[in-house]
Amino acid sequence: MTTFKREFNFDKNFMVKVSNNIRKYRNLAGITQEQLAVDVEKSYDFIRRLEYKKGEIGCSIETLYRISIVLGVSIDKFFE
After folding, report:
1. pLDDT tens digits for the chain (80 residues)?
2. pTM of the prediction?
3. Full set of structural domains in the chain with CATH
4. Cα 62–53–46 angle (5° rounding)?
5. Helix, strand, coil % in the chain, rounded to nearest 5
């Protein structure tokens, strides 16, 4: 079986969307960055940087999952 390289257009700035959406849904839920940090067991500074560094830092899928549970949104909403 022959395999070949297929072409895909991966969005290199997808974390910008994720960061913006975390902030959006956090604000809609009326939750502070500090409270979100406590709820997902991360530092306040981590949440602050995640939202405001616009994709310069990443996070694990487990952290995204925890954030989605706390904010009451499905994880796919962060990528829209």
Report:
1. 778 888 999 888 888 999 999 999 999 999 999 999 999 999 999 999 999 887 678 889 999 999 999 999 999 999 98
2. 0.86
3. 14-79 (1.10.260.40)
4. 45
5. 60, 0, 40
CB 15 within 8 A of CB 55: yes
Determine the Cα angle at 61 with ends 63 and 29, to 5°: 45
pLDDT of residue 41: 96
Backbone angles phi, psi at 24, to 5 degrees: -60, -50
Region of 3 (left: φ > 0; alpha: ψ -120 to 50; beta: rest) is beta
Tokens 């902030």 identify what position? 23
